[in-house]
Amino acid sequence: MTDLNQYEMTKYEECIFYAILAGASIIIAMLFYRNIFFAVVVIPFAPSIKSYVIEEMKQRRRREFMAQFRDELFVLSTAIGAGRSMKDAIGESIPGIMEIHGEGCILGRQLEIIYERLETGGENDVELLNELGVMSGIEDVLDFAAIYAICKKTGASIITAINKAASVIIDKMTIDNEVREIVRRKESEGLLILAMPILIILFLNLFSPDYIDPLYSCFAGRLIMTGVIAGNIGIFGIIQRITQIEI
Prior knowledge:
By secondary structure, the chain is an all-alpha fold. It has ten helices and no strands.
């Protein structure tokens, strides 16, 4: 199964990442130093920037997985309510999940693996669902696996448990979406502040280059420009820390 706690860029994604990074580095070097060779300064920071991008992609993949898992719970509830076993319910749910979220959706591929292992290997469904929870690293999936195991052991209503789990996930996703919308607005305000020094420097370069020339022609000017870049990086870090909210 795919471990959602790990992410490796494809060759295509790496090419896009390094192309954007190189382009941004050249623009910054020309804007702040008027010297393209200063673009190489970003090279030591490339691994950190790549790690940040990978973490963002992991978070996006987890959100996609949760949306898919929510829909899967409704499908499972319907199938089990019609008298299907968990194995049959999973098998029947795969086409529906792929139709809703696309052929290459993460959960769809995981369900195919689980169903194949149930069908051909005769493995225990409780263990496979728990493995899915562990590989996803998502608390709600782990909780569902634990609840299903308890229901199966004690004879409690699996349908009720699945519906409750789906209800909790929907509530959490609703709250998460509302918080993310608020955070998105605050991030936009922060990024506007972040962009102001860059826009001012660009404006002066375009309309009053003589006024800003001293910043490019002496050592003190280079230090000031470097300070502006460092300040922007610091502001970006603060914005990320403030807007990092876990639901």
